[in-house]
Amino acid sequence: MVNTSSYIKRIAHITIGVSDLTKSVSFFQSILGLRKMGEWPTYAIFDIVGVSFGLEPKSKTEICLLVDDVDKAYQNLRDKGVKFVTEPKDQPWGVRDAKLIDPDGNTFVIESLKCNVCGKTCQSYPELLEEHLRKHK
């Protein structure tokens, strides 16, 4: 099947809800062998062959779709009748995003990844976290 969207490039990130972050981090890191990119008191992020996988206590599943320009994608999708929960906004970790709901109530996020320090647009969370944010500390 051909990708008919000129905006959505790929799945960049998936977040799932967990009941116990410490137990879940141990499972995904020690048992499944995923590479952990970072962990904070309420979030952990792993890399699965270029797709970031996040764990967040009591969160609903979110699938994040990478786009070059969130504002253009937002407008294009809104014009097509897509229901958005949030308008495009900048996040402190270098993401500009907007949340949308599909016809079945599933949450998706369109996002672009941009280093807040040097301004480079990144193509993955590993690139943003490892090559930019940590490098600029």
Task: Characterise this structure.
This protein has 137 residues and is α+β, with helices and mostly antiparallel strands. 22% of the residues lie in helices and 42% in strands. The chain has helices at 21-31, 70-79, 125-133, and strands at 8-18, 35-40, 43-48, 51-57, 62-67, 83-84, 89-90, 95-101, 107-114, 121-122. Strands 1, 2, 3, 4, 5, 6, 7, 8, 9 and 10 form a 10-stranded mixed sheet that branches. A hairpin with a 2-residue loop joins strand 2 and strand 3. The relative contact order is 0.18.
Question: How is this structure best summarized?
Answer:
The chain is an alpha+beta fold. The protein is 22% helix and 42% strand.
Number of helical elements? 3
* CATH superfamily annotation: 2,3-Dihydroxybiphenyl 1,2-Dioxygenase, domain 1
CATH architecture: Roll
Unreliable segments (pLDDT under 50, ≥5 consecutive)?
Answer: none
